[in-house]
Amino acid sequence: MMKRITDFLNLLVSIAKARWILLLGFATVLSILVWLRNKLFLVVEIRLPIIAIISFVVLGSYPVAKLFEWLLARKPISPVQYRGLLWKPSRLRFRYPTPLCPRCKCKIIFRVERKSMYLVQSIRDIENAQDKMIQYIYECPNHGILPVPNEPVDYLQELAQTKINNERENAT
To answer: Are residues 106 and 152 in the same domain?
Structure first.
């Protein structure tokens, strides 16, 4: 308890000794803030004809109007069948499509199973051992495991994205 009181009194003495430095720092910060306030909130009067103001408003509202037009007039995107799955394209072209079940059009659950051991009987089995040890499983919550090639989902997404982009280019 006595140590805390001593530390507090030492802090007060240090502040009293450094009061001119603290006062100078506070005055500097205050003067910078006043200077910035005068520069940033300076009132500028601009005289424009009414036709210029109307044209600025019209040109400024054009992107907003195009956004509303795009939102209201967009066509529903139909999913594309590819490699045993339906792929729903994204509205944004840079995003990958979403895999859907080809029967009920619900989202697919993707998982990877790795086998700890694999029985090798020939040299060809050794070459394909890596492919056989990893099993990619695509599962629908309603229909169970789907017959999809044993390939990772990101690879299938890239292939589906390429197919969707080719169809978009051929349509235009």
So the answer is: yes
CB atoms within 10 A of CB 25: 11
How many domains is the chain partitioned into structurally?
2
For 64-85, write each residue's pLDDT tens digit.
Answer: 988 888 777 777 778 888 888 8
Residue 169 corresponds to which tokens in the numbers above?
């280019």
Query: What residues make up the domain containing 65?
Result: 2-73
Pairing outcome for strands 109-114 and 85-88: unpaired
Predicted local confidence at residue 55, as pLDDT: 92
pLDDT tens digits along 131-158? 667 888 889 888 888 888 888 888 999 9
> Do 104 and 146 reside in the same domain of the chain?
yes
Amino acid at 22: L
CA distance 82 to 146: 13
